[in-house]
Amino acid sequence: MTDFLPWQQTPARRWLATRERFAHAWLIHGRPGCGQMEFALAGAASLLCESPRDGLACGECQACRWVKAGNHPDLRRIRPDAQAVREGALDVAEDAKKQPSREIRIEQIRSLLPWFNTATHRGGWRVALLYPAEALNTIAANALLKILEEPPEHTVFLLSAQAPDRLLPTLVSRCRRLPLAVPPVAESLAWLEAQGVKDAAARLAAAGDAPLLAREQAQEGRPVMPAWLDLFLDQAGRDGDGAALADALQAGQPADWVDDFQRLWLDLSLGAHGLPPRYHPAQAARIATVAQALDPAALARTADWLRDQRRLAHHPLNPKLLADHAARTLLQSVRPVRADPKGRA
Ligand SMILES: [Zn+2]
Hints:
Elements: H1 9-16, E1 25-29, H2 36-48, H3 62-69, E2 75-78, H4 81-86, H5 106-110, H6 113-116, E3 126-130, H7 138-149, E4 155-161, H8 169-173, E5 176-179, H9 185-194, H10 200-206, H11 211-219, H12 227-235, H13 243-251, H14 254-272, H15 284-293, H16 296-312, H17 319-332
Parallel strand pairs: 1-4, 1-5, 2-3, 3-4
Helix pairs in contact: 10-11, 12-13, 13-17, 14-15, 14-16
Zinc ion binds next to helix 3.
């Protein structure tokens, strides 16, 4: 896919209209699931296109065909091996025992050096697409920084990122920033429906209005309301031991359920203030019931605990222990305040 997403076309035209005095490095960033990587790729295609239409890639010329086929000589994609495997561009079979790298390694940056000295096709741009920029390890980031300090001619670096604050500040300072907004809900809904996503409105809300995330979750067959959230809302405020919830959590990936509970926690905080849920509008009544009975301090403590788990979620030491502990922590924090319920305004 080398076209801009529908909501990206207007900002893309504005951006590409300045291509004559283009910065040599751009940091394209936005919330996860809003299409910054797609924007960068479509941007590369538009810069390389031989007969752009209204600034955007025509999709038909030789350059556009090369980009689509993934073999344009003036386009390089620098991403972790794990990402290349997901794209089907790299075989895992080589050494099945070894996990593909989640990092962008220095060799990948170094391998660009000879490329900078080759002539470009018809004297056009050379585009290095690097995503996600957070995957650059420190050594690779420094190597890239060195290149950007004396940028090669006719070369544009497009870095895509979700969290620029996690990048090397000196690297960020070498890039022009191009922030992408969360697309308007109506446009995202139209796009999701065109993509055949069922229950698009609930999906989009559950994904925090990030349309690509909503589509990904639909394609993975994830329920809009994950089973653990459903169980949790059923058991909240009751005297159970949380065993069923612990089982459900253990059957899933910590990275998934921590994320889901963080979203539900925001909905509960909103509910405690009498506001409608942001992520699960269809569950407004259940969320409000739980939210009205709970202790805000306990809710805040568990929010902190969830944030800590977020960092550890990829490497749980003992999944069963974590699931048991999580179920207890989550349910305890929504036990109604019994004696002397504090009057909350
Ligand atoms: Zn073209």
